[in-house]
Amino acid sequence: MLQKYSISEILSISKDFIPHFSGTFEGTDDGDVEWPHRHSFYSLVWFTEGTGLYVIDFQEYEIKPQRIFLVNTTQIHNWDYSDNCKGYILMVDQTLGKELDVDCPFPYIDIEGKDKSQVEIVLQNLIKESDLNDNLSLSNIRISIQYVYALVRRIAKEKEISIHPHNSVIEQFRTLIFDYNIKLSIEEYAEKLNISTDELNTICKTSTGESAKQYLLDLKITEAKRLLLFSNQNINEIAFQLGFEDSSYFSRIFKKKTSFSPSDFLKKYRKQE
C-alpha cells in the first residue's frame, strides 16, 4: 500500500502530533520517506527559486520561481527538484485544515508583484510565530493560515482560475463518494446532502465544470489509479470497492477517462518503476 505520512513523520520528529508547520523550503529536510506517498495533511509549497517537476495525482507540473503548489489530503505526491530550490513550506493537519477551510481545487498558482509581497509577509509571520510559541502564537498562527489561503483564493479568482464556491457541499459529496460501505445513485447522494439533484448538478457544474455523475466518475478513476499502482488488489476487487458491480463497465469507463485499459495502465507505469 502507498505510505501515508503525518506532519511529524514527514519531518522525522518523534512528537506524536503536530497540527501545523511552517518553514523555508531550503531549511526543511524531506525526512526518511517513501516516494511517491500521500499526506494526512494539507501542504502549500512556494518555490521562489529553482526548477524541477512536481507530481500531484499522476499529473506533472513544472517547478519554477514564484509558483505555489497546493496539495490536499490523500493526494499522491512526488517531486524532483534542483539543488538551488528556495521558498516556503506550510503544512496543516487534516482536522485543523478542515476547520480553517484550506482545501484548494487547483494544483498550483503563479504569483507576482504585490501578491508576492503579501504572501511572503504572511508566511514569514507564520515562521516567526511558530518560533515564539507563546500564548498569543496559536491564535496568530490560525489567523495567518486562513489569511494565506484566502490570499491564494483571491489571486486565483483574479486570474480566473476555477475555485469551489460551494466548497462544503463538494467536500461532503466527495466524502460520501469514498464511503465504500454505500453505493448510491446521484439522486440518493443529493438526498443525503439535503439538496435536490438539480442543485447538486448545478454546484458540481459551477465548481468543477462537470455534472455530478462525471465528477463522481473522475474521483473514482483517480482513486482506481492509486489502488492499481499501490495496493495488492486485482482489477475486479478495485472495481467492486469503488462501487462498480460490473468490472467490464469499470474497464470501459477507465479507458474512456485515461485512454488506457486498467491492465495497460499497470504495464505502462510499473515499467517506469
Walkthrough of the structure:
The chain is of the alpha+beta class and 273 residues long. It folds into two domains: 155 residues, Jelly Rolls (Sandwich), CATH 2.60.120; 104 residues, Arc Repressor Mutant, subunit A (Orthogonal Bundle), CATH 1.10.10.60. The chain is 48% helix and 19% strand. The strands form two sheets. It has a five-stranded mixed sheet with strand order 1-3-8-5-6. The chain has a five-stranded antiparallel sheet with strand order 2-9-4-7-10. β5 and β6 form a beta hairpin. α3 runs antiparallel to α4 and α8 packs across α10. The longest helix has 22 residues.
- CATH A-level architecture of the largest domain: Sandwich
Domain count: 2
Radius of gyration: 20 Å
The CATH superfamily title of the largest domain: Regulatory protein AraC
The CATH topology name of the largest domain reads Jelly Rolls
Percentage of residues assigned to helices: 40-55%
Proportion of residues in β-strands = 15-25%
The shape, in one word, is globular
Our count of helices gives 11
Structural class by secondary-structure content: alpha+beta
Which CATH first-tier class of the largest domain would you pick?
Answer: Mainly Beta
Number of separate strands? 10
CA(first)-CA(last) distance: 15 Å
As residue ranges, the low-confidence spans are none
Order of helices and strands: EHEEEEEEEEHEHHHHHHHHH
Rounded mean pLDDT is 88
The main sheet comes to: 5 strands, mixed
Strand order of the largest sheet: 1-3-8-5-6
Protein name: AraC-like DNA-binding protein
Organism: Dysgonomonas alginatilytica
Domain HTH araC/xylS-type: 167-268
Pfam family, one: HTH_18
